[in-house]
Amino acid sequence: MNRYSSLDAMAFKGNLTLPKIPESNMALSVLGMFLGLLLEVSTHGPSSVPRSSWRHDDVDLLEFWEPDVFNYTTLLLSEERGVLYVGAREVVYELNMSNVSIKSKQLLWKVPESDVSMCILKGKSKETDCRNYIRVLQVLDEDTLYVCGTHAFQPLCDYLSLQDFCLQDRAEDGRGKCSFDPAQSFTSVMVDGELYSGTAYNFLGSEPIISRSSLSQSLLRTEYSTSWLNEPSFVFADVIREGQDSPEGDDDKIYYFFTEVSVEYEFFGKLLIPRIARVCKGDLGGQRTLQKKWTSFMKAKLVCSMPELNFVFNVVHDVFILKAPHWRDTVIYGVFTSQWGNVGLSAVCAYNMSSVHEVFSKGKYMQKVTVEQSHTKWVRFNGITPSPRPGACISSLNRRQNITSSLQLPDKTLQFVKDHPLLEDPVLPIGNGPRLVTKDVNYTQIAVQRVQALDGSIHHVIFTGTDKGLLHKSLVLEGEVHTVEEIQLLKNPEPIKTLLLSSQVARFLYAGSDSGVVQSPTAFCEKYPSCVDCVLARDPYCAWDPRSASCLNIFQHDADPRKLIQSLKGDAGICPTAAPLVVSDYQQVLVKPGASADLPCPVRSNLAQVLWKLNGRVLTEASRFLLLSENGLLIYSVTPEDTGRYECWSVEASGGQNFTRLVMGYMLRLELPESVTSVSTLRPSSTASTLPPQEGPRDVSVEWHINGQKLETRVAEYRQVVSHDAVLVSSWLREEALNKDVQYECTAVSAAGTDVSRVELRLDSRDEAVERWRTALTDHDTLLQQWKKAWESCDGQGVL
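^ Semaphorin-4D-like isoform X4, sequence as received from the core. Prediction below:
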């Protein structure tokens, strides 16, 4: 799909009333209004912060990759055989679905040198383009897979025998079945031995096509017209069995999902529109009109927007169809973003299949207009619609009219289909808006599973993959979105390009990327160490077992459900009372004066507020303590007034209640030196500067200069008497938080001479600054001890 600048999108905001402004300022003015709208969108809608975040090494993941093999993005799960088929660059793998790190079989499918040379002559890259990227892996029958690859920009298909895992050398032309370009958008689905594809039909990628190919029939395809397909980016296709037990004798339908350039409106930029298109499985094309073309092709706008803010998510990236025993109960889920630059907003919208059926069976048609100087190029068709209804599948009513196939449809109906492929009525989302909106996250893939909780309630658990290799697990609870967790599936930040779920509840999820395949459990219940954590997670897969005192996956254990504890409302009050942490159990921390103390607090919930208390009083970051991003507490240059009882408390709101827990307790004490001449302290603050200890005679004094100006205020100082005429001096300075770079100079002055130390502090990110403070303070402590030992050693040898 082409990339469009944010300027291209400005025309779409035509419903905004703007004051007359100079053309030179217009772009900035419209962009300013648009950015303001983004800020409003980011604070509205059903957004959710993941409660738990797991790094790649925190959880048990299984991976598969091999050297010099890339693009593991075509996945096919065969639960009957217990295997996962993976199509990558020039290879097909058969992996164990319970452990993808175990490879059972593989097939190498390289491109002959003659075809590579031809590809290079056409201007393509030998290292990347002129290879064979496997893009189609579909089950043909119980013993055969249908496989297609880009084959150096000459797509080729063949049959893969599952007995010996070899190609049957029945190569077929892959045009219309598989893309030429490995980077081009593409989708396919096998339905009853026939391959339905959405791809490009030519080398340049300029002729989009939705097609059906089979051994028994010639290729059936879309009309080559921008009215039918206009620069589409295909994302998904699947069959809906609407013909099963249909009282109207209806046919099964194949639905396609894609984003294309709008044909309804014409501006100075290209406006993108997400679409849902439909064809009938029994379509045979027309007798005279639309020969070997779809007679049932229709498309409609797929809306995902926030109407109250007039904000539209107009690019669909992936679709998942959550099927039900009856097709009317099927729900379609899609992930969307906006075309207007990198705004960092993603949305998940859901659609009832019954609403989709209503649009295609009863919706109004659109037709082209020839009005000049108008942005609107298509309007509602208000004339008389031919009969049978254009685009409809052959039904029992048609058969009673002696129309038993599309070959018998009248030319008037077929000509109408050819000229009016676009429906006016859009497909609207459930609730008229997104189920989920995220900020600073770009969703790329989606999978959904229907899960029954212990109380019998049914929930749709939404798994979404991002362009940074992360996985989010979310669900809608009592009208609000709750994101259970965020998992770093991929070691490196790269897009998840395929997401696949096992049909067995609470089994596995598989993610494909350019670098490999990752297998993940659908739940990490064992990561919750307490009943409160288990319940507050609000994960329908998980429940607390009092007998084993552990959080269990309810679908993988035989525990009595009546004795398990689960509350998707997050009511942790139903948990048994846990033994409180007593002071005698607090961890003892012994720190030297002037050293730093790092007190960790392992709170894994991103929704919890962490409070630190010292001797029962709540600490703030305004003084000498630094609260770390991982909820720990850093105390630098510890003084006697810093000693005492430290407690880390977690406060988390859920179900209209606040749940408070004592997470960690510490007893901080000073390890005082044997001989201290004087210790003076200054009220500390949020930043500190520590210099190496200075040595010298007893008359030594310390002066501080900040940016060349002498500091008159009394400064904290530590002296260690080493001998009758030597003393070790360490001085440190605390100041308010920095807002600019600062140079500090510490001068030790005595009758014996002068020594100067300098340090320059530059503003940096919070995490980097904290890490540098830790290093500096550790170095300070180490150096202090080294000097002390050195002086004591010299004194013991009679040198001093």
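Helices lie at 23-42, 113-121, 353-362, 396-400, 411-419, 531-536, 766-796.
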